[in-house]
Design brief:
Blueprint: H1 3-15, H2 39-53, E1 59-69, H3 72-84, E2 89-92, H4 101-106, E3 109-112, H5 120-138
Parallel strand pairs: 1-2, 1-3
Length: 145
């Protein structure tokens, strides 16, 4: 991942209070994955690796182009709900081939960040920024505007 993307994720993460701070868990891409002839099998292997990292009681949100688009207030309401319920939330970001069907099935929610297509590395930065923006909104901080 380019250093500026990691720096962007880290910057927004550091701004969050500890109990809201996102933790990035990367699933290493198998060697030769970009040359894999069977993209479906590759996506399935990535999906299995993702599901192994999720705890049974996590609230899972799959980031998917077909998911629900929320505004900042919607993200803020969701964050407040997670805090009230003391929920751990896992956001799933797919690779270049998206998320495997079992990952989508495991998710309690599917959200879309945009109708545009972003590199999955950039989605990390966008996600961290949107979490910070939503948290700022809940605190009455002017950043969200």
């Amino acid at each position: 991942m380019p250093a500026w993307m990691q720096a962007g994720f880290n910057d927004y993460s550091r701004r969050m209070p500890t109990h809201y701070r996102p933790e990035l868990i990367e699933i290493p891409r198998p060697k030769g994955a970009h040359k894999a002839k069977d993209k479906q099998a590759q996506c399935r292997r990535e999906g299995q690796a993702i599901l192994e990292k999720i705890h049974t009681d996590d609230w899972v949100i799959a980031l998917d182009p077909k998911g629900k688009a929320l505004d900042t207030e919607g993200w803020a309401r969701a964050m407040e709900s997670w805090a009230l319920e003391n929920r751990q939330v896992a956001f799933l970001i797919g690779g270049s081939d998206g998320l495997d069907a079992p990952c989508l099935a495991r998710a309690q929610s599917k959200w879309s960040l945009s109708a545009l297509t972003f590199p999955h590395m950039l989605v990390r930065v966008i996600l961290a920024e949107q979490l910070y923006r939503a948290w700022s909104f809940t605190q009455g901080h002017p950043y969200h505007k």
